[in-house]
UniProtKB/TrEMBL annotation:
It comes from Labrys monachus. It holds the Pfam family RNase_PH_C. Residues 70-89 are annotated as: Disordered. Residues 70-80 have a biased composition (Basic and acidic residues). Phosphorolytic 3'-5' exoribonuclease that plays an important role in tRNA 3'-end maturation. Removes nucleotide residues following the 3'-CCA terminus of tRNAs; can also add nucleotides to the ends of RNA molecules by using nucleoside diphosphates as substrates, but this may not be physiologically important. Probably plays a role in initiation of 16S rRNA degradation (leading to ribosome degradation) during starvation. This is Ribonuclease PH.
Length: 238
């Protein structure tokens, strides 16, 4: 089978991570999964949400948005409609959950870190790029606090990254771009830690159900792809 991008079934798109791209943010990066480009920033707020005050615990949350011309046709800014779409809310909750899975909230203390993921250009996999790049921004924010003696040690316990997999023309493939995603029989997103722990799996059959063996094939691809992404994260922050 020849994929639209001419990649092997287990091959990621070219991935690049550029840190410190936002002058005023405590942590930031521009991450690219092929033609999907996402700006991730981390902003420190020196108090937690009201419901956590007095507990000694902090919080990590995320917001996600897509610029109007991130896609082929202009989409209306959600700020003009008065509220984020259901898709936006679902993605930003996923990003927040994924990052919180590797953060010790007690060690963070009564602070909140907000990760903003702004899609500059979309070609599939915006949520997986947001999680992978969001971890870089979060890590740099924690480094920023350590340098200023606001933290003794980093509250981050492990890496976390995400990747999409799917069933296209009957075969499991890794890291779908839009052309492939739009025609895939199954689309799934995997979030995993550097140690290989599963944080979240989202999978949907578009038409015929997928089999257990196909799921196992996608999981194997996801493990390989996320291991490669974690290696890239480690190189980026070295």
């Amino acid at each position: 089978m020849m994929r639209p991008s001419r990649r092997a079934p287990d091959e990621l798109r070219p991935v690049s991570i550029e840190r410190n791209v936002a002058r005023y943010a405590e942590g930031s990066c521009l991450i690219k999964f092929g033609e999907t480009h996402v700006l991730c920033t981390a902003s420190l707020e020196e108090k937690p949400p009201a419901w956590l005050r007095g507990t000694g615990k902090g919080w990590v949350t995320a917001e996600y948005s897509m610029l109007p011309r991130a896609t082929h046709e202009r989409t209306r800014r959600e700020s003009t409609s008065g509220k984020p779409s259901g898709r936006t809310q679902e993605i930003q909750r996923l990003v927040g959950r994924s990052l919180r899975a590797v953060v010790d909230m007690v060690r963070l203390g009564e602070k909140q870190i907000v990760i903003d993921c702004d899609v500059l250009q979309a070609d599939g996999g915006t949520r997986t790029a947001s999680i992978t790049g969001g971890w870089i921004a979060l890590n740099d924010c924690c480094r920023w606090m350590i340098e200023r003696r606001m933290l003794a040690v980093s509250p981050i316990r492990d890496h976390v990254a995400a990747i999409s997999c799917g069933i296209s023309k009957g075969e499991a493939v890794l890291d779908l771009d839009y052309a492939e995603d739009s025609e895939a029989q199954t689309d799934a997103n995997f979030v995993m830690t550097g140690a290989g722990g599963l944080v979240e799996i989202q999978g949907t059959a578009e038409g015929a159900p997928f089999s257990e063996s196909q799921f196992i094939d996608m999981l194997a691809l996801a493990k390989k792809g996320i291991a490669d992404l974690v290696t890239l994260q480690k190189k980026a922050i070295a």
